[in-house]
Amino acid sequence: MLGEHGRGTLEHHRLWPLGVNGDLQPGRRGGDVRLVFCGTLSKAFGGFGGIIPGTRRFIARARSASHYHSGASEPPIAAAAATARAIGLLSRRPEMRENLRRNVRLVREGLRDCGLDVEDTPSPVIGLRIGDAANMRRIERQLRARGILVKYMESYAGVGPEGVLRISVFATHTAEMIEKLIAAMQEAL
């Protein structure tokens, strides 16, 4: 969802044109230094596995230089087909990225209106630390009882010992769903 064309963090920060996963070109700014990009297909696309996009030459070099590729299994055909379909769908429907951006903004603003300290980033994943683990588990149960799934994560990269409540915002969430989340969160707090 990040970046003008949805290519992610590198596009968002205008780093994509710097030769990402391309062939080294002598004399380019930065010399032999360039960015290498890989990603996961299991988050935004709901797929399976990871990707390393690039030129044919770059991919050939990556395969020959890495032992990881030789031991990796191909994704199940159905998962690969579903992922390819999701990528195609998002390519043909840029309004989905706009819906997601709008929904992220609405959720973040609503949570701030509830008195929560929420960062102003474009990420559709929002981590909340609200007191201790017991309190966050209580909030998770209370929201689930209202049909809202906000997952309490006991441990996650970069999270302290108290854990975190993790909200995932989707392009397909409606304004009514977001209003329901904010009202339920306000009640839980």
CATH class of the largest domain: Alpha Beta
CATH superfamily of the largest domain: Aspartate Aminotransferase, domain 1
Give the helix/strand class: mainly alpha
Distance between the termini: 30 Å
Number of H/I helices: 7
CATH architecture of the largest domain: Alpha-Beta Complex
Task: Summarize this entry quickly.
By secondary structure, the chain is mainly alpha-helical. It contains seven helices and five strands.
Structure description:
This protein is mostly helical and 189 residues long. The chain folds into 2 domains: 9-92, no CATH class; 95-188, Aspartate Aminotransferase, domain 1, CATH 3.90.1150. It is 43% helix and 8% strand. It has helices at residues 9-12, 56-65, 67-71, 77-92, 95-113, 133-145, 175-188, and strands at 39-40, 50-51, 125-128, 151-153, 164-168. It has a 3-stranded antiparallel β-sheet with strand order 3-5-4, covered by helices on one side. The longest helix is centred in the middle third of the chain and has 19 residues, at 95-113. The radius of gyration is 20 Å and the shape is elongated. The two termini are 30 Å apart.
